[in-house]
Known about the structure:
mainly beta; 7-stranded mixed barrel
Amino acid sequence: MPVLRKTEYTGRITWLGHVPADRGVQAQPIDRLDLGFAGVSGGRHEGENRASCVRVKNLYSQGTEIRNVRQLTVLSEEELAQIAADMGMDRLDPAHLGATIVLRGIPDFTFVPPSSRLQGQDGVTLTVDMENRPCVLPGREIEKDHAGFGARFKPAAQNRRGITAWVERPGSLSLGGELTLFVPDQRAWAP
Length: 191
């Protein structure tokens, strides 16, 4: 494992959500999130393992059991505002995007390096998997409440969709709490 370097950046939690396992991607806003090794109990992406999907089809046949590194969807408040502006909307509800956590204060958030950590004051730690590429599912949720805007989501969210993450150390998160960013202390890959 690479050495992790503490950065000067801390993100304040401005929104928390729970996406129930038995529904679509729409999240329900909540004030507190209890995280275990399997992620969010009763959540759509709960589990230490999962079936592979199209995002890793160049590695595995769809449905192959793999480690679940998509337990959480973490977004940037600043990037959400940019997406909304590009869509011609005043505000974009994170619930439509299946968000688990929205943070304010970490620049260029979607491109935080994989294997970075976000750590709370009580030690809860999330490991960054990678950029969460835009897809059509949030657009469908947006369209339900804002007719004519759903198809605008995917192009507007390019390079701003946030990251997926998994729980490295369980704990709790609350609105107004903070997560400090730690990044791998290594140079960029340069083949």
